[in-house]
Amino acid sequence: MSNENNSGITPDELLSVIDFSPADNLEDLSTTVPWKSKMIGQQVRNLFNYQQMLDIIKKESWLFGPWAIAASWQSAILDTVLRPVKASARLSVGASRNPDAIADMNGWIYKSYSRLLYTLTGFFIKDGKFNPEKAKMICTTPKGREYLKNYMDEFAQLEYQYNNIGLSRLNAMKELLKCLLVLITEKPLADGPLPFAKTNSDQTLKTSFEQYLAENRVRMENLYEANAFDIKEYSERATHGNIGCSAYEFVEGSLNHRVRLRCYPVPQGAKPNGKIIYMATPLINKPELFDLATGKSVIEALLKKGYIIYVVDHGDPGWEETELGLDFYGKTIPDFYLDIIKKRHPRDEIYIMAYCMGGTLIMPYLARRAEERLAAGLPMDIKKVALMASPVKFDDEGSGHHAIRSLIRRDYDPDLMKELFGSVNIPPQVIEAGMNEIQPGVQHTVVLGFYGRAETKESITDAAPFLYWLTHGTKFPVSAHIQWIQNVFIGNQIYEGKYCLPSSNPKFNGKPVNMSILKKAGVRIFDYKGSRDPIAPAGSCVAGETWGQVDKGNVKFTSGGLNRVIEKNIGHIFVVSRKLLAEYLDLVEGFYQEPSIGKPAVLNIKNSADSDASGNIVNIKKLQTKNN
After folding, report:
1. In the chain, what are the domains?
2. Which of 245, 361, 398, 501 could be a cystine partner for 330, CB 3.0 to 4.6 Å?
3. How far apart are alpha carbons 604 and 562 in whole angstroms?
């Protein structure tokens, strides 16, 4: 480097303009803490609870006498404060904005911060390449240094206004800013690691500093070209709001409220195999998780194998869906759609595939279906179900849900949910806030990981469908949400055999489902779970160890005729990885292809100790051949 460049401004001098801010994680936390949202949320909750107490007092005038009059007066005054709060919540949901005004402000900060990153990077881009000569000139002239410091003042204003602390999304964005400042000044940070550097175990650079600069210039060039500094805005532009790669049609006559049934026909060139797969999807996600993009699609791969696929699309629930509960989504809908499928394909065998809470709710449904059919003298007509990260056990011990159950008991108020969202349903931002509590640091990890992979253009493009899916959730019908939390998550009713469903048979209508009937009915369960899954911990995904074709207690088996339980070193949304998806598809298709009846050999395949996910693969066919 020249002496002129050596005399230029340093990245630390530029960062000192900001000094310390909430984006720095000085608390060294392992997750994001939305402290201001929590504080204001608790205050709002207290006001609603106080009004509830006043309403109780005013209704019992015979008991409270003159106090009832005072309570009525106070409640009326308080109502002038709370009615605008409720109206604001409804307006926000209707406009697809975050009803938490503090979190909504953070969203504006992310957008503004990303635009500053884009414009500052663009100042040094010439013909698509980062221009070191221009950077050198800016760093070594008074006007240039003033220009950079003015930019840092703007970054500082955004960071000071940030309402979260800890390992946050803004913290990840600031790492990218630090990287950009190192590229501009061509000087390392005085203290701390270089952002996105390849390091040895002792944190020393694997490459020279010059090579680090070259690699990260490419990173910034790629991000600038795609304008991908804000993951949500980028995903919207890149996908145009459309994700999914497989052709489908909505089944005529399947519309029930906002729910519809998609049919994915076997594509040209693939031979139909006479099998149907009914995919039960979660209420909180778009169904495109099964069909994100070419090469990352469960649906695409199974269509090529000749399966006809039907997928439940819950749509966008509105006012008419606010009173619909889990009876509707967990019994009426699968009854209705499976009847449609059986009429369309009377001779074809039907399999189930379900992800996350879709699997949680499909298990008691199948048990109730088995009860009804066996009582009518009919055999069970669906005997294979493949679960993906589907929790069924919710307790404070081995399930892994203790932390989130404690959080729910402390913070979740069903009455408040009804007050705020009773006519508009639970918005995806509220669901996302809960998911962030379950997954420490996930906001930081997703953004930093995306920036880290931006060294190649293909990684940026490849991530767009998933980022769109991740940042564009669906509303959760409010009554169903309350039942999900109270009956399933806190009540643990499915696992404990207390979960009730309606039935056309008066003997079963409104009674607890007998989950053990699944074994008598011959239902086999393929239970696929991850040892690194915080949303559906391995200890909660125990359907395959508990019900259906188990033998000698909750032993895990791999061969024909019995359940198959596979635990791998993966997270919750493993389908975004082509490698992990291919492994899953190989195993699940082997399960579907096995005869329903057979004398099994017992093989324990649980393997969570291997840190390499590929090391957990089990070749089922080889194992079966060996044991025959």
Report:
1. 249-399+494-627 (3.40.50.1820)
2. 361
3. 12
